[in-house]
Amino acid sequence: MISNRMKRRQFFKRSTGFIGAASMLSAVSQIGCIPSTAPAMRAELSQNKIAFNTAIPELSKVGDGVKLENNGLEYPILLIRKSESDFVAVSTECMHLGCQVRMQRIILRCPCHGSAYDLEGKVLNGPTEEPLKRYNIRMKENIAEILVL
Ligand code: FES
């Protein structure tokens, strides 16, 4: 009788441990799978500049962002609308160990170790200690000219 109770207790303890581990794995894998709220777009890179037309529905509201990709870029660039006429461009390279950050509404989050940045690339949460690389932008009407140096 006692031995059966012990077996049940051990079984329950092991099952609970397994369920806890499975839940944790599930949570970790979900963090890695959180979709970016910035759609990926192809951008033309010429003479260290990207000229991107911002008059698109994906950038129509303050806080909207797009991920600009080009084979000439080591990391894609996030272009984010700050106001009616102002944008910010930051690299997606996490300054901790180089994973790609993702835009998740009002923060930029790294799926690797959880670093978080605000939409201007400033550090909100470690382990990173450095802000994201920012690019200078010149606006010409609706065209954002991003200087990739
Ligand atoms: S590489 Fe981004 S938090 Fe570690």
Q: Can you walk me through this structure?
A:
- Residues 1-31 have low confidence and may be disordered.
- The protein starts with a helix and ends with a strand.
- By secondary structure, the protein is an alpha+beta fold.
- Strand 9 and strand 10 form a beta hairpin.
- It has 1 helix and 12 strands.
- The protein is globular and about 40 Å long.
- It is 21% helix and 32% strand.
- The protein folds into 2 domains: 1-33; 40-147, Rieske [2Fe-2S] iron-sulphur domain (Rieske Iron-sulfur Protein, 3-layer Sandwich), CATH 2.102.10.
- The strands form 2 sheets. An 8-stranded mixed sheet has the order 1-4-5-6-11-12-3-2, with no helix packed on it. Strands 7-8-9-10 form a 4-stranded antiparallel sheet, with no helix packed on it.
- Bound molecules: FE2/S2 (inorganic) cluster.
- FE2/S2 (inorganic) cluster is lined by residues 94, 96-99, 110, 112-115, 127-128.
In short:
The protein is α+β, with helices and mostly antiparallel strands. Helix content is 21%, strand content 32%.
Report the major sheet: 8 strands, mixed
- As laid out across the biggest beta sheet, the strand order is 1-4-5-6-11-12-3-2
Number of domains: 2
CATH architectural name of the largest domain: 3-layer Sandwich
CATH fold annotation of the largest domain:
Rieske Iron-sulfur Protein
Instruction: Please work out how many helical segments DSSP would assign.
Output: 1
Mean pLDDT, to the nearest integer, reads 83
Number of strands: 12
The proportion of residues in beta strands is 25-35%
Kindly report the name of the CATH homologous superfamily of the largest domain: Rieske [2Fe-2S] iron-sulphur domain
Gap from first CA to last CA? 75 Å
> What is the H/E order?
HEEEEEEEEEEEE
